Amino acid sequence: MSLSGLRRPVCLIPKFALCIGRSLTVPICAKRRNVPKIMSVQKFSASVPKPKKETVSLCFKLTDGSEHTATAKVGDNLLDIIIDNDIDVDGFGACEGTLACSTCHLIFKPDQYEQIHEKPTDEELDMLDLAFGLSDTSRLGCQVIVTKEMDGWEIEVPSGVADARG
Amino acid sequence: MLFILPRLCRQHLRSYVQSHIRQLTTGQPNVCIVGAGPAGFYTAQQILKGNPNAVVDIYEKLPVPFGLVRYGVAPDHPEVKNVINTFTQTASKDRCTFIGNVTIGKDISIADLQKAYSAVVLSYGADNDRLLGVPGENLKNVISARSFVGWYNGLPQDIDLQVNLDVEKAVIIGHGNVALDVARILLMPIDLLKKTDISQHSLDALSKSRIKEVIVIGRRGPLQVAFTIKELREMIRLPDCKPVLSQADFIGVDKLIQDLPRPRRRLTELMYKTCMEPTDKDVKLWKTAQKSWSLSFCMSPLEIFGDKDVTGLKLGINKLQGEDLVKQSAILTDQTVDMSCGLVLRSIGYKSIVIDPDIPFDTKSGTIPNKDSRVEGKPGMYCTGWVSTGPVGVILTTMNQAFETGKTVVKDINDGILDLTKPGKSDIFNILNSKGVQTVSFKDWENIDQFEVKQGEDVGKPREKMVDISQMVSVAKKS
Question: Which domain of life is it from (chain B) (predicted)?
Answer without folding.
Answer: Eukaryota
